[in-house]
Specification:
Helix content: 25-40%
Pfam families: Cofilin_ADF (PF00241)
Strand content: 25-35%
GO cellular component, one term: actin cytoskeleton
Family: Belongs to the actin-binding proteins ADF family.
GO biological process, one term: actin filament depolymerization
Keywords: Actin-binding
Oligomer: single chain
Largest sheet: 6 strands, mixed
Amino acid sequence: MTQAQLISISSSHPLLSLVSDHHQPENMANSASGMHVSDECKLKFLELKAKRNYRFIVFKIDEKAQQVKIDMVGNPEETYDSFTKCMPENECRYAVYDFDFTTPENCQKSKIFFIAWSPDTSRVRSKMLYASSKDRFKRELDGIQVELQATDPSEMSLDIIKGRVNL
């Protein structure tokens, strides 16, 4: 049965309309926003997580292609300050950052942060698109340990990051 046939049947029967609303085809990239995640995003994230080839990855939604793509990557030597300077002042982005730290017990550790950057000055449409695509995108990146939502630079300062890992 096609999607169009289901819609015509469901509109004529109240119980069927309840059922059909909850069974959207899984092949729709993201039922909330229609976004697809490029294979390059998944591959680069795996390289960050397993091989530690990158300090951070910044992702951008290409609205025309309806796809999340890589905006930029940072080498392992990059600092947190250089990462925050990569975030555009008026545009939304997703980012992952591999944060290295030493515990009070002198143990070397690392946590992978997912940052949803949605500045107050960005377009409303863009904020809605990023918000509706975030959960699905995060599910594609297996290994995120800490999530952070930021609307201005102070909400993703190094002190905030350290606080999230109990430093």
